[in-house]
Amino acid sequence: MWVSSLVMRRMMTLTMAAMLVTLLTGSCGGGSSSSSSGGADRTVLVDYKHDEFVSTFLRYYPANVKVRPGDNVTFRQAWTGEPHSVTMGKVVDEAIELLPVVGQYATPEEAQAGGVSEEVITKASVTFSKLPPMTNRGFGIYQPGAKPCFVEDYDAIPAFTDAEGQTNPDTKCPTSGKPQPRFNGRQGLYNSGFIPFQGRKENTFTLPIAADATPGTYQYYCNYHYFEMSGSVEVVDKGKSIPSEDAVKREAQREIAKDAKGALNKVRQANEGKFGDAKLPLAGRTTGRDRDAVAIDEFFPSSIKAKVGKPVTWTLEGAPHTVSFNVPKYFPIFEVSKLGAVRWDPQSYEPVAWSVPPLPEGGGPESPPTPRLVDVGAWDGKGGFHSSGFLVPGDTFTVTFTKAGTYPYACVLHPLMVGKVEVKA
To answer: Which domains does the chain have, with CATH numbers?
Structure first.
Protein backbone atom coordinates (compact mmCIF):
# COMPACT_ATOMS: atom_id res chain seq x y z
CA MET A 1 0.00 0.00 0.00
CA TRP A 2 2.53 2.62 1.27
CA VAL A 3 2.51 6.07 -0.37
CA SER A 4 0.53 5.03 -3.42
CA SER A 5 -2.38 3.98 -1.20
CA LEU A 6 -2.85 7.60 -0.16
CA VAL A 7 -2.84 8.73 -3.77
CA MET A 8 -5.33 6.09 -4.88
CA ARG A 9 -7.88 6.35 -2.04
CA ARG A 10 -10.39 8.49 -3.87
CA MET A 11 -10.09 7.08 -7.41
CA MET A 12 -13.63 5.68 -7.24
CA THR A 13 -15.11 9.03 -6.31
CA LEU A 14 -14.10 10.73 -9.56
CA THR A 15 -11.23 10.74 -12.02
CA MET A 16 -7.99 12.53 -11.19
CA ALA A 17 -7.62 16.28 -11.47
CA ALA A 18 -4.36 17.85 -12.59
CA MET A 19 -2.38 18.56 -9.43
CA LEU A 20 -0.38 21.65 -10.20
CA VAL A 21 -1.74 23.97 -12.89
CA THR A 22 -0.63 27.24 -14.41
CA LEU A 23 -0.28 30.31 -12.23
CA LEU A 24 -2.99 32.89 -11.95
CA THR A 25 -3.19 35.46 -14.73
CA GLY A 26 -5.23 38.66 -14.91
CA SER A 27 -5.11 42.32 -14.12
CA CYS A 28 -3.39 43.44 -10.96
CA GLY A 29 -4.24 45.92 -8.29
CA GLY A 30 -5.26 46.28 -4.70
CA GLY A 31 -8.23 44.53 -3.17
CA SER A 32 -11.62 45.52 -4.53
CA SER A 33 -13.06 44.38 -1.21
CA SER A 34 -11.56 44.49 2.25
CA SER A 35 -11.72 42.22 5.26
CA SER A 36 -12.52 43.33 8.79
CA SER A 37 -8.78 43.23 9.55
CA GLY A 38 -8.08 45.82 6.85
CA GLY A 39 -6.60 43.43 4.29
CA ALA A 40 -8.03 42.38 0.95
CA ASP A 41 -10.38 39.43 0.46
CA ARG A 42 -9.90 36.88 -2.30
CA THR A 43 -12.36 34.09 -3.06
CA VAL A 44 -11.58 30.54 -4.17
CA LEU A 45 -14.49 28.36 -5.31
CA VAL A 46 -14.54 24.81 -3.96
CA ASP A 47 -16.37 22.50 -6.40
CA TYR A 48 -18.93 24.03 -8.78
CA LYS A 49 -22.59 23.71 -9.80
CA HIS A 50 -22.87 24.13 -13.54
CA ASP A 51 -26.04 25.73 -14.88
CA GLU A 52 -26.31 23.33 -17.85
CA PHE A 53 -26.01 19.99 -16.07
CA VAL A 54 -25.92 18.50 -12.58
CA SER A 55 -22.25 18.32 -11.80
CA THR A 56 -19.37 17.74 -9.45
CA PHE A 57 -16.11 19.62 -10.11
CA LEU A 58 -13.18 18.27 -8.10
CA ARG A 59 -11.21 21.48 -8.38
CA TYR A 60 -10.51 24.72 -6.60
CA TYR A 61 -11.17 27.81 -8.75
CA PRO A 62 -8.85 29.44 -9.44
CA ALA A 63 -6.24 26.81 -8.71
CA ASN A 64 -3.76 29.46 -7.64
CA VAL A 65 -4.39 32.78 -5.88
CA LYS A 66 -2.04 35.57 -4.81
CA VAL A 67 -2.45 37.44 -1.52
CA ARG A 68 -0.41 39.64 0.81
CA PRO A 69 0.20 39.43 4.55
CA GLY A 70 -2.94 40.58 6.35
CA ASP A 71 -5.29 39.46 3.54
CA ASN A 72 -7.93 36.74 3.70
CA VAL A 73 -8.76 33.89 1.34
CA THR A 74 -12.37 32.71 1.52
CA PHE A 75 -12.94 29.20 0.20
CA ARG A 76 -16.58 29.13 -0.92
CA GLN A 77 -17.98 25.64 -1.39
CA ALA A 78 -20.71 24.59 -3.81
CA TRP A 79 -22.40 21.67 -2.06
CA THR A 80 -22.81 18.88 -4.62
CA GLY A 81 -22.79 16.03 -2.12
CA GLU A 82 -19.00 15.67 -2.18
CA PRO A 83 -17.24 16.58 1.09
CA HIS A 84 -14.19 18.83 0.90
CA SER A 85 -11.47 20.34 3.05
CA VAL A 86 -8.57 22.77 2.76
CA THR A 87 -5.53 20.94 4.13
CA MET A 88 -2.14 22.65 4.05
CA GLY A 89 1.03 23.35 6.01
CA LYS A 90 4.67 22.27 5.79
CA VAL A 91 3.72 18.59 5.73
CA VAL A 92 1.54 19.13 2.63
CA ASP A 93 4.22 21.14 0.82
CA GLU A 94 6.69 18.36 1.58
CA ALA A 95 4.30 15.61 0.45
CA ILE A 96 3.59 17.32 -2.88
CA GLU A 97 7.32 17.78 -3.43
CA LEU A 98 7.92 14.07 -2.78
CA LEU A 99 4.91 12.77 -4.69
CA PRO A 100 6.43 12.80 -8.20
CA VAL A 101 9.41 10.81 -6.88
CA VAL A 102 7.70 8.17 -4.74
CA GLY A 103 4.01 8.27 -5.72
CA GLN A 104 4.47 5.74 -8.53
CA TYR A 105 5.63 2.98 -6.18
CA ALA A 106 3.38 0.69 -4.14
CA THR A 107 5.99 -0.25 -1.53
CA PRO A 108 9.28 1.10 -0.14
CA GLU A 109 10.98 -1.94 -1.67
CA GLU A 110 9.68 -1.04 -5.13
CA ALA A 111 10.86 2.54 -4.64
CA GLN A 112 14.32 1.32 -3.64
CA ALA A 113 14.44 -0.99 -6.65
CA GLY A 114 13.46 1.97 -8.79
CA GLY A 115 16.50 3.93 -7.65
CA VAL A 116 14.95 6.09 -4.92
CA SER A 117 17.42 6.68 -2.08
CA GLU A 118 16.82 5.30 1.40
CA GLU A 119 16.85 8.87 2.75
CA VAL A 120 13.99 9.92 0.45
CA ILE A 121 12.03 6.73 1.17
CA THR A 122 12.28 7.30 4.92
CA LYS A 123 11.33 10.96 4.54
CA ALA A 124 8.31 10.04 2.41
CA SER A 125 7.12 7.40 4.88
CA VAL A 126 7.25 9.89 7.75
CA THR A 127 5.68 12.72 5.75
CA PHE A 128 2.74 10.77 4.37
CA SER A 129 1.98 9.26 7.77
CA LYS A 130 1.43 12.81 9.07
CA LEU A 131 -1.36 13.57 6.55
CA PRO A 132 -4.75 13.15 8.29
CA PRO A 133 -7.37 11.57 5.97
CA MET A 134 -11.03 12.51 6.32
CA THR A 135 -12.18 8.90 6.10
CA ASN A 136 -11.09 5.42 7.12
CA ARG A 137 -11.25 2.55 4.68
CA GLY A 138 -14.77 2.03 3.49
CA PHE A 139 -17.16 4.66 4.80
CA GLY A 140 -15.86 5.43 8.27
CA ILE A 141 -15.12 9.02 9.29
CA TYR A 142 -11.64 9.59 10.70
CA GLN A 143 -12.21 12.36 13.21
CA PRO A 144 -8.60 13.67 13.41
CA GLY A 145 -8.84 14.52 9.70
CA ALA A 146 -12.52 15.44 9.51
CA LYS A 147 -12.27 18.01 12.31
CA PRO A 148 -10.10 21.18 12.21
CA CYS A 149 -6.50 20.60 13.24
CA PHE A 150 -3.78 23.26 13.43
CA VAL A 151 -0.33 22.08 14.55
CA GLU A 152 2.39 24.69 14.83
CA ASP A 153 5.48 22.48 14.67
CA TYR A 154 6.07 19.82 12.01
CA ASP A 155 7.69 17.49 14.54
CA ALA A 156 4.59 17.70 16.76
CA ILE A 157 2.33 16.25 14.07
CA PRO A 158 1.52 12.66 15.05
CA ALA A 159 1.43 9.66 12.72
CA PHE A 160 -2.19 9.47 11.54
CA THR A 161 -1.54 6.41 9.34
CA ASP A 162 0.80 3.44 9.53
CA ALA A 163 3.15 1.96 6.92
CA GLU A 164 0.22 0.21 5.23
CA GLY A 165 -1.84 3.38 4.93
CA GLN A 166 -4.21 2.30 7.73
CA THR A 167 -5.42 5.04 10.07
CA ASN A 168 -4.23 4.89 13.67
CA PRO A 169 -7.42 4.80 15.79
CA ASP A 170 -5.81 6.14 18.95
CA THR A 171 -4.18 9.17 17.30
CA LYS A 172 -5.74 12.55 18.03
CA CYS A 173 -5.05 16.04 16.79
CA PRO A 174 -2.74 17.48 19.47
CA THR A 175 -4.44 20.89 19.22
CA SER A 176 -8.03 19.67 19.00
CA GLY A 177 -10.52 22.31 20.10
CA LYS A 178 -8.10 25.24 19.99
CA PRO A 179 -9.01 28.36 17.96
CA GLN A 180 -7.89 28.64 14.37
CA PRO A 181 -4.69 30.71 14.13
CA ARG A 182 -3.79 33.03 11.27
CA PHE A 183 -1.77 31.24 8.61
CA ASN A 184 1.88 32.30 8.61
CA GLY A 185 3.39 29.73 6.23
CA ARG A 186 5.40 28.14 9.01
CA GLN A 187 2.76 25.85 10.55
CA GLY A 188 3.36 22.12 10.29
CA LEU A 189 -0.30 21.26 9.62
CA TYR A 190 -3.22 23.58 8.89
CA ASN A 191 -6.38 21.58 8.25
CA SER A 192 -9.88 23.07 7.94
CA GLY A 193 -11.46 19.64 8.36
CA PHE A 194 -14.79 18.94 6.68
CA ILE A 195 -16.33 22.17 5.37
CA PRO A 196 -19.94 21.92 6.64
CA PHE A 197 -22.73 22.61 4.16
CA GLN A 198 -25.03 23.88 6.90
CA GLY A 199 -24.70 25.94 10.05
CA ARG A 200 -23.23 29.32 10.97
CA LYS A 201 -20.32 29.11 8.52
CA GLU A 202 -22.03 26.94 5.95
CA ASN A 203 -19.98 26.15 2.83
CA THR A 204 -17.13 28.51 3.69
CA PHE A 205 -13.66 28.30 5.17
CA THR A 206 -11.68 31.50 5.68
CA LEU A 207 -7.89 31.42 5.57
CA PRO A 208 -6.60 34.55 7.34
CA ILE A 209 -3.04 35.40 6.34
CA ALA A 210 -0.91 36.59 9.25
CA ALA A 211 0.68 40.03 9.12
CA ASP A 212 4.09 38.37 9.55
CA ALA A 213 3.43 35.57 7.04
CA THR A 214 6.54 34.39 5.19
CA PRO A 215 6.26 35.09 1.44
CA GLY A 216 6.10 31.89 -0.60
CA THR A 217 3.80 29.47 -2.41
CA TYR A 218 1.82 27.13 -0.17
CA GLN A 219 0.10 24.04 -1.51
CA TYR A 220 -3.18 22.70 -0.22
CA TYR A 221 -5.41 19.75 -1.07
CA CYS A 222 -8.70 18.12 -0.12
CA ASN A 223 -8.07 15.35 2.39
CA TYR A 224 -11.15 13.46 1.14
CA HIS A 225 -10.26 13.49 -2.56
CA TYR A 226 -6.50 13.70 -1.92
CA PHE A 227 -4.01 15.07 -4.40
CA GLU A 228 -6.46 14.71 -7.28
CA MET A 229 -7.92 17.96 -5.91
CA SER A 230 -5.34 20.59 -4.99
CA GLY A 231 -4.29 24.20 -5.40
CA SER A 232 -1.99 26.83 -3.95
CA VAL A 233 -1.92 30.18 -2.19
CA GLU A 234 0.99 32.47 -3.02
CA VAL A 235 1.86 35.04 -0.36
CA VAL A 236 3.77 37.98 -1.82
CA ASP A 237 5.53 40.88 -0.09
CA LYS A 238 3.15 43.34 1.53
CA GLY A 239 3.94 46.17 -0.89
CA LYS A 240 3.38 44.13 -4.08
CA SER A 241 0.28 44.37 -6.23
CA ILE A 242 -1.92 41.31 -6.66
CA PRO A 243 -4.73 40.43 -9.09
CA SER A 244 -7.98 42.14 -8.12
CA GLU A 245 -10.97 40.18 -6.84
CA ASP A 246 -12.65 40.70 -10.22
CA ALA A 247 -9.59 39.30 -11.98
CA VAL A 248 -9.60 36.29 -9.65
CA LYS A 249 -13.28 35.68 -10.47
CA ARG A 250 -12.59 35.91 -14.21
CA GLU A 251 -9.75 33.42 -13.92
CA ALA A 252 -11.98 31.06 -11.94
CA GLN A 253 -14.63 31.20 -14.66
CA ARG A 254 -12.02 30.65 -17.37
CA GLU A 255 -10.76 27.51 -15.62
CA ILE A 256 -14.31 26.28 -15.04
CA ALA A 257 -15.19 26.74 -18.71
CA LYS A 258 -12.08 24.82 -19.74
CA ASP A 259 -12.81 21.93 -17.39
CA ALA A 260 -16.49 21.79 -18.38
CA LYS A 261 -15.91 21.31 -22.13
CA GLY A 262 -15.76 17.52 -22.13
CA ALA A 263 -18.80 17.18 -19.89
CA LEU A 264 -20.84 19.68 -21.89
CA ASN A 265 -20.12 17.76 -25.10
CA LYS A 266 -21.40 14.56 -23.47
CA VAL A 267 -24.51 16.29 -22.12
CA ARG A 268 -25.32 17.82 -25.49
CA GLN A 269 -24.86 14.47 -27.18
CA ALA A 270 -27.20 12.92 -24.62
CA ASN A 271 -29.81 15.60 -25.28
CA GLU A 272 -29.60 14.60 -28.96
CA GLY A 273 -30.05 10.95 -28.05
CA LYS A 274 -26.43 10.03 -28.78
CA PHE A 275 -25.14 7.54 -26.21
CA GLY A 276 -22.80 5.38 -28.30
CA ASP A 277 -22.70 1.81 -27.01
CA ALA A 278 -24.02 2.71 -23.54
CA LYS A 279 -27.09 0.82 -22.35
CA LEU A 280 -29.95 3.03 -21.19
CA PRO A 281 -31.02 4.08 -18.65
CA LEU A 282 -27.77 5.40 -17.19
CA ALA A 283 -27.01 6.53 -13.68
CA GLY A 284 -24.31 9.13 -14.21
CA ARG A 285 -22.22 9.72 -17.29
CA THR A 286 -18.50 9.68 -17.90
CA THR A 287 -16.88 12.48 -19.85
CA GLY A 288 -14.64 9.95 -21.57
CA ARG A 289 -11.46 11.66 -20.35
CA ASP A 290 -9.39 9.65 -17.88
CA ARG A 291 -7.96 12.63 -16.02
CA ASP A 292 -11.09 14.78 -16.02
CA ALA A 293 -12.13 16.20 -12.66
CA VAL A 294 -15.73 16.79 -13.74
CA ALA A 295 -18.58 14.32 -13.16
CA ILE A 296 -21.98 14.40 -14.85
CA ASP A 297 -24.39 13.60 -12.04
CA GLU A 298 -27.57 12.98 -14.01
CA PHE A 299 -29.85 10.10 -14.92
CA PHE A 300 -30.22 9.52 -18.66
CA PRO A 301 -32.97 9.75 -19.64
CA SER A 302 -34.34 11.67 -16.66
CA SER A 303 -37.83 10.31 -17.36
CA ILE A 304 -38.16 6.58 -18.03
CA LYS A 305 -41.17 4.87 -19.60
CA ALA A 306 -41.80 1.39 -18.21
CA LYS A 307 -44.49 -1.28 -18.02
CA VAL A 308 -45.85 -3.24 -15.10
CA GLY A 309 -43.98 -6.51 -14.73
CA LYS A 310 -41.12 -5.47 -17.01
CA PRO A 311 -37.71 -4.93 -15.35
CA VAL A 312 -35.97 -1.55 -15.48
CA THR A 313 -32.17 -1.74 -15.33
CA TRP A 314 -29.83 1.19 -14.68
CA THR A 315 -26.15 0.98 -15.61
CA LEU A 316 -23.73 2.94 -13.43
CA GLU A 317 -21.28 5.18 -15.24
CA GLY A 318 -18.91 8.00 -14.37
CA ALA A 319 -18.96 8.01 -10.56
CA PRO A 320 -20.58 6.13 -7.66
CA HIS A 321 -24.31 6.81 -7.22
CA THR A 322 -27.43 5.37 -5.62
CA VAL A 323 -30.86 4.69 -7.12
CA SER A 324 -33.24 5.65 -4.30
CA PHE A 325 -37.03 5.98 -4.05
CA ASN A 326 -39.31 7.73 -1.54
CA VAL A 327 -36.30 9.74 -0.36
CA PRO A 328 -36.94 11.84 2.79
CA LYS A 329 -37.21 15.57 2.08
CA TYR A 330 -34.27 16.35 4.36
CA PHE A 331 -31.33 14.02 4.03
CA PRO A 332 -28.05 15.23 5.59
CA ILE A 333 -25.32 13.01 4.17
CA PHE A 334 -22.68 14.42 6.51
CA GLU A 335 -23.51 15.97 9.88
CA VAL A 336 -21.40 17.89 12.38
CA SER A 337 -22.36 17.56 16.03
CA LYS A 338 -22.30 20.42 18.54
CA LEU A 339 -18.97 19.03 19.76
CA GLY A 340 -17.57 19.02 16.23
CA ALA A 341 -17.65 15.29 15.48
CA VAL A 342 -18.46 14.45 11.87
CA ARG A 343 -20.92 11.66 11.05
CA TRP A 344 -21.60 10.03 7.66
CA ASP A 345 -25.23 8.85 7.56
CA PRO A 346 -25.22 5.11 6.70
CA GLN A 347 -28.49 5.53 4.79
CA SER A 348 -26.58 7.42 2.11
CA TYR A 349 -24.38 4.45 1.21
CA GLU A 350 -25.99 1.30 2.65
CA PRO A 351 -28.95 -0.45 0.96
CA VAL A 352 -32.27 0.49 2.56
CA ALA A 353 -35.28 -1.90 2.51
CA TRP A 354 -33.73 -3.95 -0.30
CA SER A 355 -31.29 -6.85 -0.13
CA VAL A 356 -28.21 -5.91 -2.17
CA PRO A 357 -24.99 -7.96 -2.35
CA PRO A 358 -22.15 -6.15 -0.58
CA LEU A 359 -19.24 -4.65 -2.42
CA PRO A 360 -16.56 -7.29 -2.96
CA GLU A 361 -13.80 -7.57 -0.37
CA GLY A 362 -11.71 -4.42 -0.37
CA GLY A 363 -14.48 -2.40 -1.99
CA GLY A 364 -15.59 1.03 -0.90
CA PRO A 365 -15.04 4.56 -2.10
CA GLU A 366 -11.26 3.99 -2.27
CA SER A 367 -10.82 0.92 -4.48
CA PRO A 368 -12.62 -0.33 -7.60
CA PRO A 369 -14.44 -3.61 -6.91
CA THR A 370 -15.74 -6.08 -9.48
CA PRO A 371 -19.04 -4.81 -10.98
CA ARG A 372 -22.22 -6.33 -9.56
CA LEU A 373 -25.47 -7.22 -11.36
CA VAL A 374 -27.99 -6.20 -8.70
CA ASP A 375 -31.64 -7.24 -9.08
CA VAL A 376 -33.97 -6.43 -6.17
CA GLY A 377 -36.96 -8.05 -7.87
CA ALA A 378 -40.61 -6.93 -7.77
CA TRP A 379 -41.71 -3.75 -5.99
CA ASP A 380 -45.07 -1.98 -5.70
CA GLY A 381 -43.71 1.39 -4.56
CA LYS A 382 -44.81 0.92 -0.93
CA GLY A 383 -42.82 0.68 2.29
CA GLY A 384 -41.23 4.12 2.44
CA PHE A 385 -37.59 4.87 1.69
CA HIS A 386 -35.92 2.29 -0.57
CA SER A 387 -32.33 2.61 -1.78
CA SER A 388 -29.81 0.58 -3.74
CA GLY A 389 -26.99 1.83 -1.56
CA PHE A 390 -23.57 2.68 -2.95
CA LEU A 391 -23.22 1.52 -6.56
CA VAL A 392 -20.00 1.87 -8.54
CA PRO A 393 -19.36 2.34 -12.27
CA GLY A 394 -20.03 -0.91 -14.10
CA ASP A 395 -22.70 -2.08 -11.63
CA THR A 396 -26.26 -2.56 -12.85
CA PHE A 397 -29.38 -2.14 -10.74
CA THR A 398 -32.75 -3.68 -11.66
CA VAL A 399 -36.26 -3.13 -10.30
CA THR A 400 -39.50 -4.68 -11.61
CA PHE A 401 -42.46 -2.42 -10.85
CA THR A 402 -45.72 -4.26 -10.11
CA LYS A 403 -48.04 -1.26 -9.97
CA ALA A 404 -48.72 1.55 -12.45
CA GLY A 405 -47.79 5.06 -11.37
CA THR A 406 -45.07 7.68 -11.32
CA TYR A 407 -42.00 6.88 -9.23
CA PRO A 408 -39.64 9.82 -8.51
CA TYR A 409 -36.14 8.75 -7.56
CA ALA A 410 -32.76 10.27 -6.76
CA CYS A 411 -29.13 9.65 -5.94
CA VAL A 412 -28.79 10.39 -2.23
CA LEU A 413 -25.04 10.92 -2.60
CA HIS A 414 -25.63 13.80 -5.04
CA PRO A 415 -28.80 15.65 -3.95
CA LEU A 416 -29.58 17.36 -7.29
CA MET A 417 -29.43 14.10 -9.26
CA VAL A 418 -33.09 13.14 -9.77
CA GLY A 419 -35.34 11.32 -12.22
CA LYS A 420 -38.68 9.56 -12.49
CA VAL A 421 -40.09 6.29 -13.78
CA GLU A 422 -43.56 6.38 -15.38
CA VAL A 423 -45.01 2.88 -15.16
CA LYS A 424 -48.07 1.92 -17.18
CA ALA A 425 -50.12 -1.26 -17.14
So the answer is: 2-258 (2.60.40.420), 261-424 (2.60.40.420)
